[in-house]
Write a structure and sequence with these properties.
alpha/beta, Alpha-D-Glucose-1,6-Bisphosphate, Chain A, domain 3, 4 domains, seven-stranded mixed β-sheet, six-stranded antiparallel β-sheet, 23 strands, about 35% helix, globular
């Protein structure tokens, strides 16, 4: 039996509250296990801005060093910089101490293999967990070393290759959510004609305005108000570890990640007509149209970064997207990047503005042609599997797919139901071709789910 709370061992990372679940002892064990399983000699270690980050990272590095491997300490980074380091530095992979968008009392560890290849619980990450839970300890006579390396300049240089030429003057409101991304955006935009109105730009692990999750409606009020008051062209927000980016039009309206996915499919297929792109089944029609218009092939993947990254590599896809704000790029090691997303969408919006259009015009077109709910519905229920089975029977006359939850397709309506892998939650997404169908059939599926006693989780507050 593990000496650590089993809850912290997730599909793609370790994660829990500090110091009750995620502890220095767990971090030390993770460092030792990584060296053992990966047969590592050189290991990259970084962290986000959380207050528990320094002690967790120190314990993690000590575990690596005691196991006889060397640490390349890259300091406070965004998660995507871990991918950059694992691909560019002479190392055997790496770890970053982060809990992404979760509240400040959380922390965790993300793991990556050399070449920016993700680790998953059903592979080497599972072996790492087994080693930790077995209580093994390595104490080499010859300890490893720790050296510091600043990778910001190299990272910024690579990012600048994603900026379109002949950019017009842009006024943008940016929210860094008190994470590490402010300094990185500054480095990447150096020399451009972008006027960035900065909010929550300073690094602060207290997260004084609540959980650093831009998808929470309570966290969208500030940036929306500022966009309007500053007469900005658009707004962008990142979560604390900056691997996701979210956008707003000049009226302060949220630009659904589903529509951003479609815009990015169109953008990258203009660069490489006929290429493969990866999508998920939660919402599909806008993405299918974008792929078809670009002569490309939309390949469906199970939701989740491990699945999508695998599909990206298997299909040599130029782009992959999830409506959650994770977007993946062949030219960024097949990994997700909030910075590449920002630069690519900035290029899309800039082109529209140069041609006399507006960001709100783009959003209005998607809202009109592809109506959908504003965000994913999360229902708390222990009956998720039962509900999905009953829904499959209810919609037996529709085309169905069961590879990523339950997908139901009618010519006028699309439904996707998925179970959470970590909590008793059933997730619902749907879309229609008209607002009338959206209201009618949306209410039908919502009422059906609540008839089983499921309750809609309040996702409006931190």
């Amino acid at each position: 039996m593990s000496i650590f709370d089993p809850y912290i061992f997730r599909a793609y990372d370790m994660r829990g509250t500090y110091p009750t679940q995620m502890t220095e002892a767990a971090a030390y064990a993770a460092g030792q296990a990584f060296v053992h399983v990966m047969k590592a000699k050189n290991v990259v270690v970084g962290r986000d801005v959380r207050l528990s980050g320094p002690s967790i990272a120190e314990a993690l590095m000590q575990g690596v060093v005691d196991a006889g491997a060397n640490v390349i300490n890259v300091g406070v980074i965004s998660t995507e910089m871990l991918y950059y380091a694992a691909a560019k530095l002479d190392c055997d992979g790496g770890m970053s101490v982060t809990a992404s968008h979760l509240p400040g009392q959380w922390n965790g560890i993300k793991f990556i293999e050399k070449g920016a290849i993700p680790l998953a619980r059903d592979g080497k990450l599972g072996e790492i967990y087994d080693f930790i839970n077995a209580g093994h300890k390595i104490s080499e006579f010859e300890k490893g070393t720790i050296r510091e390396e600043n990778i910001i300049d190299g990272y910024a240089e690579l990012m600048q290759t994603f900026i379109a030429k002949d950019m017009p003057h842009l006024k943008i409101v940016g929210n860094a959510s008190f994470g590490a991304n402010g300094k990185l955006v500054d480095a990447v935009l150096k020399g451009t004609d972008v006027e960035m109105i900065k909010i929550n730009w300073n690094e602060d692990g207290h997260f004084p305005k609540g959980a650093p999750d831009p998808l929470l409606p309570v966290n969208q009020v500030e940036i929306c108000d500022r966009i309007v008051s500053e007469s900005a062209h658009f707004g962008v927000a990142w979560d604390a570890d900056a691997d996701r980016a979210f956008f707003y039009d000049e009226k302060g309206r949220f630009f659904n990640g589903y529509y951003i996915t479609a815009l990015l499919i169109k953008y990258f297929l203009q660069k490489e007509h006929g290429a493969n792109v990866i999508g998920e089944r939660r919402l599909i029609w806008a993405n299918q149209a974008a792929a078809k218009n670009g002569g490309g092939q939309l390949v469906f993947s199970q939701t989740g970064h491990g699945y999508i990254k695998m599909a990206m590599r298997e299909n040599n896809a130029i782009f992959g997207g999830e409506m959650s704000g994770h977007f993946y790029y062949r030219d960024y090691f097949y990994c997700d990047s909030g910075m590449v997303t920002f630069l690519a969408i900035m290029s899309v919006f800039a082109e529209e503005i140069k041609n006399g259009g507006t960001v709100s015009g783009l959003l209005d077109a998607y809202l009109s042609e592809y109506p959908t709910s504003r965000q994913e519905f999360n229902y708390i229920t222990p009956k998720a599997e039962e509900i999905m089975k009953a829904a499959s029977e209810k919609y037996a006359d529709a085309e169905q797919n069961h590879l990523d939850g339950l997908t139901v397709d009618y010519p006028h309506f699309h439904i996707n139901l998925r179970m959470s892998s970590n909590e008793p939650v059933l997730r619902l997404n749907y879309e229609a071709h008209t607002q009338e169908d959206l209201a009618t059939y949306g209410k039908e599926i919502e009422d059906f789910i609540t008839s089983f006693g499921a309750t809609l989780r309040d996702d409006t507050h931190a």
